[in-house]
Amino acid sequence: MKNLLEMWTKDGLLRDQNGDGVIDGTNVFINLPEHLAPEGLIDFCARLGFETTSLSFNFFEPREGTVEVGFEKSDFKTDIRIEAGKLLVHYKNEAELSMFLKLLASIDDEQDCDGCIAIELRDGKPYAGRVALSVVSGQTQSDESHPVIDNLSELWSFSGVGKNKEASPGKSLSMNIEVEESLLTTALLRELCYFAARSAMYSTRISFPVTGEPDASLQIVIGEGPGAGSGLGEYQNLVGPILELLDSNVLSLKGSREMLPSAMSQLARSKHWSEGGSFGYWEKKQQLSQKSEAPLLFEMAWKDNCEVDLAFQILTESESLDGADVEVFLSEPFEIRQQLEQEWKGKFPGIHSLVIRSAFKTGLHWMMEEVLPEWQASNRHIHGIEIKVQKETGEKGLELPIRWIQELYPIDRCIEELMGLKAGQVYFKLEEDLNHTYEIYGIDEQGDKFFLSHLDVPVSSLPYVDGQHMVYPVSSAVRIHHGTMVEEHLIQTDRERFYRFYVEEVLPKLWREVSDYQPGQGHTRPLFDRIEIDVWMSEEEKSLQVDKERVSSLEALHEDLYFNTLDYFAQMGEEVEGKPFSAPGGVHPFMHIRTGEKPEAQIKVYGWEEKSVEQLITKALVFHPEGALAEAIVSDGEREFKLPIEPFEQPSEQIHPDVQQWMETGTRYRIMYPDYSYGGHAIPVVECFLDAGEEFYSPLKMSVFKKTLFIEAGHHSNEVSSTPAVLALMEEAGERFGDWLKHMNVVFIPLANPDGYQLLTKLTNEHPEWKHHAARFNAVGLEFAHVRFQETVFGEANIYPEILRRWAPDIIIDDHGIPAHEWVQPFAGYNSPPRFPVSYFIPSAHIYGIGRVSTDETYRKFHEENLEEIVSSVSKYLIGTSIESENNYWKERFIKYGNQWLPDVFPIEEAPGIHFYRQTFVTPNYASVGITRYPDWIAADIISEAADEVVYGEALQSCIDAHIEFDLAIIDVLLHTKVESERIRVPGLSLERIRPIKLDERNG
Asked: What is the pTM of this model?
């Protein structure tokens, strides 16, 4: 070092160990004599900590290559000089030395002082030669970036020292450490220096001095005694030192002169439990121990005759079968219907003809089982098929006008696979006055049409759960034709009869049981814990061997039971509160195929035990005489009790096999555990940055110097590709961008919703290829995103806010998914649920994007421009790839079956190679969305949606690849966007940069 004003740079007492241009460690050996204990050294070390993003407690240890700071008594002056490669501090007395060190801590290092090899204390000011050097001091103004310690367990938190209520790119430190003069030994001073350095490292703003400042926000007082006088009662006579919380941001450490250094050493080195330490874990463990199994509220059973028996009874009792043509519609699998045809023809010999058709996706089955085989048998060459479809016009019906086109899906692709006629040669024509539900016409070589067949589909009717609409599902039926005379007997399907029982008896009983609820239930916590529905029926279940399409009437019932239960309680909320209940409880439908038997069901409802988050306040920490933390003295508002200090043990197994395998292979990234899910799973967070190998590090400080990306995966657990995608993304980014972590940081949640994943595992054991939307929310059916930034018992909701507090990311990506195959709900209008403003009936793309922008007009245009930069990059990444081809394929399907008829219900916002939605009607903003809550510093908030509910093998890998490319495109933009950090000196010292960042890869 050739200039003392380089002291607070990497040319002085600091270092950049990994070559990324960011200070990440100290380069100093403070050779402090044992007899010396200048209080001002605490300020000096606080400045050391403030200037770095990471550190280890080694300032007082000789290390090769470090700058030594020595001390020498002088009778003439107090100064600091560069001598023989060392910094030598001369001092007249300890008091003057302390003052001088405080001034050095707050010196402005950007002053013009070439060849400054000595700084001298004169009249209480630092001088370089004849020039008085300026210093920075003063208290930063009170703002939300000041951490609050109103619970000792938050002295070291997941986000550093103290805990801020709101996330912010800035974290202020206004601290005063006051020590009784008789206690300030050299040993204690060293530990206080480490404590101050670590506290300052976590901060982006600091006010000097940090000693002798009675107006500082955070007061830490070290005194002699057992810690009596704070109401600790029976604990006041404990032998070891005691750290007490006297008031908000007022801490007192008391103990003997001999014991205080070791206690302070333990305190300075303690790590929050999320980092694998023990600090604060005593409270978390106590809270986890309070969880109990939900009590059984009630159970019900249902059993009925099957629709097969009801149809047979109608035929048996009919007096008009002789010479008749009979149509029967049943929900049975094709093989069962074929058997019944043979049996019933033998039992009713007078029937002229008998056909038994499906009562689920009737049009599709009719085409596949009758129309196409007849066409094939005729050997007639057909160049095209026109399917005329009756337009749906049911009064107050939830069905879309194209409902009968939807029920044919994916007939054109089936024809292509079975008959060789291209899907593009199968046309739909929607007609309001069509005489039949369907009319099929062939098209010959000249383009002329000829009639092939027609079908009338029997329909039932029942009120929807909202009490305002009707639904018209396909019904089972027996039709007896005598020429033009038709005698029709509608039969409710097994599914419909159970569904009516569920809606008319189970749900009203459930509402009566939970109607005496507490404020907030149904919104921030559920009305009931969960309802488990087991249904056994004989129904069709088969793959169509086209895309990922399948026929599954029980999957449709599963979806109806789940979503319609949510809608029922939404309506009850409107009636009793004027706003919908958005969180009634978990709805877990388990569907079981039992071929050829009568239908039955079992319902069990588990009650919600009203609990608030246990308000534990750690009032004191007791140390063993040798310094180790012994126990915490905690209050729950009614009593005080002791809790042992135990380290957090990282879970040995992860609930998701991909996460488990990734961790077992050995990751070079840091794994943190900010909280537990409601079901008791510790939720890992992965932090990816260029590590300097130090013991402590400050993510918030690193985000000042580098751009930071936050990715959430596995939020909706039935969207299965985001978790493996984000795990693979890190390796892929390294291969694409080389030393990319030199320029940015990434933090991600691999599985945000472990409880939902646990339910998904149970559901897929029996039906591995269903969508299983019942597993999308948490253990009690709550969309936990809506209770972020609130006090909640659902720890999964706390992870996102904690990451924003800890890292203050520039861009947020939320990787999601959509169904990989048709989504139908016959008892909700056949389409996907009415609660969604747009249709998800079939995939609109292999992957598409959603861009959120701020609702704040100050930042809206800025965010829109950032979004377009991201859209452009994603397009570049996808054009010419198989992902673009997949997107084009699904776009054509989406247009054919929806967009061309109802563009508002089936919207497309195109960008090259991908759909990218910018409108809020696709995904509305709400208060817990990052860019909505913090528009002044979050630059972009993006959602990706891959068609992954639920897929395996090549289909899963394709979705993983799509997520990776999507995210890499955003990483590319962020990597090439230039940022500059700034230093602001009055009042105090501040490290910050312009937020939100302006995304522009051309400026990189």
From this structure: 0.95
